[in-house]
Write a structure and sequence with these properties.
single chain, globular, 2 domains, Rossmann fold, 10 helices, 7-stranded mixed sheet, binds S-adenosylmethionine, alpha/beta, VC0802-like
Length: 383
């Protein structure tokens, strides 16, 4: 049986997510704005939840059609055979999102979707499910456009960037799926040295370590689909065991390196690596990037430098960037450096020639991934 799915992701990562889903076995892969549509059987939804590093969720399309008002929305949702998807003893949460919807209130639309699900289940089974907004068993999502509504069952539950290992976070940790998407955009593959010299709580280095370990990112957590009617526990256990059997042991000398100027950040990276059981995959040290040496003759450097909103912080960053550029030129010839930031002044102030800039969104914040090939003895004009 072919089902249709939609995997939302941070905007800018659609192409790398589409390639990842195709590798996982998805058919009809169709990148759209903010996510990727795909098709496959029900087991593909479990596999995508377990294996996707870049998706935010895996939504299962269970209905949809023309919809211009609340009556049409209610009828459309009530026409779905909800008992096929989950039992009325499960608690429910409904979320509605829209682009240019003709419906005046999203809150009211959410209420109508919830009523239609509950009314249909009561008609068919005699019981209405109750709502739990904080920790629901089942999440139903509706997406409205000017003309249509699409109704989804969320197979993920908690968003997929929650891998289940994070113990402690720096001030502004990247979401894990955004970090994994940035790594995919650099084209890095295990075997090539990798460095995050401003590692904060270690998110980027830990995502690289998961890849190097061949670890399925969802092995340490549970998913929404485990509470759905068609969940097959033994088949799921077999899928997870097959993923565990694929894992590699840590190498004798790690090729992934992480450092930060702040001792607290280094402590958090070490604690998170331990919690993720990836200790042996990353060499961690406390170091100021402006003074540290390259850990190998070539490699991929990926960092998410501090991002200042206050004027004083922005001034401090404007002083930092040229020094970062100098450090790269002096000690990182042969490397390709990538910086992910919302500060669009970086390429001008770092005094290096930018080879590629990829627009991305970190939540609502517009960002770029800037790529700088570091070539010995070649400086950008004016640098
Ligand atoms: C935005 S945070 C990185 C967050 C990280 N990506 C995460 O997910 O947790 C920026 C980090 O850069 C570090 N940093 C700032 N200046 C530095 C320097 N000169 N050398 C090394 N680290 C620096 C800060 O200590 C901070 O941890």
């Amino acid at each position: 049986m072919t089902e249709r799915y939609f995997a939302p992701c941070p905007r800018g990562l659609e192409a790398v997510l589409a390639a990842e889903l195709a590798r996982i076995g998805a058919g009809d892969v169709a990148p759209a704005d903010g996510g990727v549509g795909f098709a496959g059987d029900l087991a593909l939804a479990w596999r995508a939840n377990l294996e996707s590093r870049i998706a935010s969720r895996i939504l299962w399309r269970v209905g949809g059609g023309a919809c211009r008002d609340e009556h049409a929305l209610y009828a459309l949702v009530k026409a779905i055979d909800w008992k096929r998807h989950f039992a009325p003893s499960r608690t429910l949460r409904v979320d509605v999102a829209a682009t240019r919807s003709p419906l005046p209130s999203l809150e009211f639309a959410t209420l109508r979707v919830k009523d239609a699900v509950c009314d249909r289940l009561r008609d068919d089974t005699g019981t209405r499910p109750s709502v739990d907004k904080r920790a629901p068993d089942v999440r139903v999502a509706a997406y409205l456009t000017e003309r249509d509504a699409t109704i989804y069952v969320d197979t993920s539950g908690e968003p997929l960037f929650k891998r289940g290992w994070r113990r402690d976070a720096e001030e502004a940790p990247l979401r894990e799926n955004l970090a994994a998407g940035l790594i995919a955009l650099t084209g890095w593959a295990p075997g090539t040295p990798f460095l995050d010299p401003m590692c904060g709580s270690g998110t980027i280095a830990i995502e690289a370590a998961l890849i190097a370990a061949g670890r399925a990112p969802g092995l340490a957590r549970t998913f929404g689909f485990q509470k759905l009617a068609w969940f097959d526990g033994p088949a799921w256990q077999r899928m997870k065991q097959a993923a565990r059997d694929r894992e590699h042991a840590a190498p004798s000398a790690p090729a992934i390196f992480a450092s930060d100027a702040a001792g607290g950040a280094v402590g958090k990276t070490l604690a998170n690596l331990r919690a993720a059981k990836l200790d042996g995959f990353v060499a961690v040290e406390q170091a100021d990037f402006l003074a540290r040496s390259a850990p190998a003759a070539h490699g991929v450097l990926l960092a998410n430098p501090p991002y200042g909103v206050r004027l004083a912080d922005r001034d401090e960053l404007a002083r930092l960037y040229p020094l970062v550029g100098d450090a790269l030129k002096q000690r990182f010839a042969g490397w390709t450096a990538y910086f992910f930031t919302g500060d669009l002044r970086l390429p001008k102030l770092i005094h290096l020639k930018v080879a590629r800039k990829t627009p991305l969104f970190n939540g609502a914040l517009e960002c770029r991934l800037f790529e700088f090939p570091i070539v010995a003895g070649r400086h950008a004009p004016g640098a």
